[in-house]
Fold this sequence. Notes:
With 575 residues, the chain is α/β, with parallel strands linked by helices. The protein contains 18 helices and 13 strands.
Amino acid sequence: MIRDNRIFLGMSGDERVELEVRMANRHGLIAGATGTGKTVSLKVLAESFSDAGVPVFMADVKGDLAGMHEAGTDKESVRAKIDRYNLEEQGFGYKSYPVNFWDVYAEGGMPLRTTVSEMGPLLLARILGLSETQTSVLTVVFKIADDNDLLLVDTKDLKALLAYVQENASDFAMEYGNMSKQSMAVIVRAVVALESQGGDRFFAEPALDVSDWLTVNYDGRGMIQILDARKLVNSPVMYSTFLLWMISELYETLPEVGDLDKPRMVFFFDEAHLLFENASKALLEKIEQVVKLIRSKGVGIYFVTQSPRDIPDGILAQLGNKVQHALRAYTPAETKAVRKAAESFRENPDFDTYDTLINLGIGEALVSTLDDDGVPTIVRKTSILPPQSSLGAIDDSVRRAAIEGSALYKRYNDYFDRDSAYEFLTRKNAEAAAEAARLAEEEAREKAEAEEAKAAEKQAEAEARAAEKQAAAEARAAERQAAAEARAAEKEAAAAQKAAEKEAAAAQKAAEREAKARKKKVTSVISTTAGSAGSTIGREIGSTLGKTVGGSFGKKIGANVGSTLGRGILKTFFS
């Protein structure tokens, strides 16, 4: 309920407990054990913000916030509180509220999508469960995408880029540093695992435009955006990171406005402890920074959780408006936590905060808000008002009618896949493959031509060797033939020479015989003649000698000597 720009939260005795609307962007906390009434407090605040014309976002993890689409009905406990505090006289009445239903899985609401680029590497790394080293690699991959104008819309874009970077790691190493194959493989596996959890539907287009949430209904009431998180909360990391992305998106999108008469939007973060579990130091720093600075953008954030200790001290200190339902203290650790929660309030002298906190009933809470000067009021035990909308869940048919009747349904229901990194890299790979195929074909052709030339060369060489061999064989045959002919000629010449020699020898012998015969004949003639002449000469000599010697003996000696000497002289002369 809203009056004079004050949210009517509940009653503390006979006094109204209110929250200044203009102080609502100072953030807040709704805490308490299970079953103590946190959901009721959340709905009362959300209804009041809507009545004040402030858009609201909330995550519905149990399905009971969907009842805001329908008017509430009388129940005994609710009627008793209405009558006790005369709420109807103060403007209380059952009514429905303008609601848009959303769902990451597009089952309990309109599809709620964003792009990989808008999520950014830090939040995406948390969803993927990456180590610091792997997160730094993912950050580099995002930088490469930015530097090369590669739009990362969905998970297939991211996988295509990861594959491209891995294939060309050596080319990127000099400018961006080394990125190990192991880290890249881990990231790819994590992306595939995310797809199996519905990430391929969450990272898609049309992406959410947060300006569509900063709207009011035709009657001036702020639109309430309800995320059906009944399925999403089963993936706690994805749930918390998604809500953190939404806060970050509001922070980055909205301009600075300073302190307004009322927030531009109020964001309720249910199951807030999931946001901080296993969060890295860098992520915690980012959350604290966003919580601190988003106030100046006109956005109020209200964390809903079981215990204040679920919220880091640096963020808890930023939460000026607190609705603390009962906490239980069954162990020393719980006692310490409850006492710490009690000490966080500005003390009320009328009661002991710790004792009151552990003994609060259902629907009761310790409430402290910021006054006109931004100072926390003293804590007051408050009976929280009942919501004006339905407390329970709604029928699926009613939900479906509300979804399809939304003014945003046509805009966000139809999925489309525009040209982005996947398509660009697919074309590039196809072109590279075509070029590689062309080069391979050209190389194959050149290789075939080279092989053909080589084969022709081998054939020519073989033919040349065969011709050379044949020529050599023919030459050898000719040589053998010539040698044979030469030998035959030589043999024939030798035979002819031998025959000639033989004939010459025979002729010589014949000539010799003839000469010998002639000689013999001549010799005979000469001999006869010589003998006769010799005899004559001898006789003359013998006669002379005989005359000298004297007597018949002298004549006889002279005749013999003269005859012999004469024949000898003639024979010698004619021989």
